[in-house]
């Protein structure tokens, strides 16, 4: 599902990878939410200030166009640099 504002995509919701969820392996479906933001660094800082933790990613952060985070309850989401 894509959320649009004035015709531009601002968020996307799709199914994420399947993880093992317990000692006895079973598939646990989950959602992965993507948000497009005008300033990736500011949005990341705000998310972390509200309790999110950044998920380790590529070492070359200067060219990164998105960042993965987990909210305080552990839900994974990404912030992506909005393009014109």
UniProtKB/TrEMBL annotation:
Pfam families named in the record: Glyoxalase_6
Coiled-coil intervals: none
SUPFAM superfamilies in alphabetical order: Glyoxalase/Bleomycin resistance protein/Dihydroxybiphenyl dioxygenase
Domain of life, source organism: Bacteria
All copies of domain VOC, residue ranges: 1-82
GO molecular function: lyase activity
The keyword Ion transport is assigned to this record: no
Name under which the protein is recorded: Enzyme related to lactoylglutathione lyase
């Amino acid at each position: 599902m894509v959320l649009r504002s004035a015709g531009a995509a601002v968020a996307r919701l799709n199914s994420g990878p399947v993880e093992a969820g317990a000692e006895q392996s079973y598939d646990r479906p989950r959602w992965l939410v993507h948000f497009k933001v005008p300033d990736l660094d500011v949005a990341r800082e705000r998310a972390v200030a509200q309790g999110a933790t950044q998920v380790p990613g590529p070492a070359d952060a200067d060219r990164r166009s998105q960042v993965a985070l987990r909210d305080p309850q552990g839900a994974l989401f990404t912030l992506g640099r909005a393009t014109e």
